[in-house]
Amino acid sequence: MRQQEFLALLIFSTLFALTRGGRPEKIGAIALFAGALISFLVVRPRGLRFRHIETGILMTDIALLGIFLWLTFRCTRFWPIWISGLLGAETLVHLGLIVAPQVHWEVYLNATALWSWLIQLMLVIGTWRHQMRLMQNGRDPPWRGNIN
């Protein structure tokens, strides 16, 4: 049930950002959707999932962290720094299994999944705030410096 609910949130946040967001929100939405799809494709088969570090998901999370750090430094929005922080925490959960390999696999699964929910909510809030700035100011410049 939780997977279907997350899929609904993922689809909603992606469509909301793609239709109502500026360029940073669209980049974030595409990156997060692609990251979720890649994570689904690289996770170990049932019965073996989350018994050891999910290397494919860890690599996906690190790539997403890089994208959101880039957005943090290049765009005028505040939400990418929140997502970067959440992705950093999610990455640490993966690496924490090295320090504590005896952690039950369900704890590892839930600890990594928690951040994904919050990340989707940050994208929705960031897109909503973009819309509020557009209504208040008539514009919302997306990039710092000379990037268009």
Structural class label: mainly alpha
Distance between the termini: 42 Å
Please write the string of helix (H) and strand (E) elements.
HHHHH
Shape: elongated
Q: Count helical runs.
A: 5
> How large is the radius of gyration?
16 Å
Number of domains: 1
Unreliable sequence segments = none
Helical content stands at over 70%
Structure summary, number of beta strands: 0
**Largest beta-sheet details:** none
Query: Which percent band covers the strand fraction?
Result: under 5%
Transmembrane segments: 27-43, 55-73, 79-100, 107-128
Keywords: Membrane, Transmembrane, Transmembrane helix
Question: What is the fold's blueprint, element by element?
Answer:
Elements: H1 2-20, H2 23-42, H3 55-74, H4 79-99, H5 105-137
Task: Please characterize this protein's 3D structure.
With 148 residues, this protein is mainly alpha-helical. The protein has one domain (2-137). Helices cover 76% and strands 0% of the residues. It contains 5 helices and no strands. The longest helix is centred in the last third of the chain and has 33 residues, at 105-137. The relative contact order is 0.17.
Explain briefly what this protein structure is:
With 148 residues, the protein is an all-alpha fold. It contains five helices and no strands. The longest helix is centred in the last third of the chain and has 33 residues.
Keywords, separated by commas or semicolons:
76% helix, mainly alpha, 148 residues, elongated, transmembrane
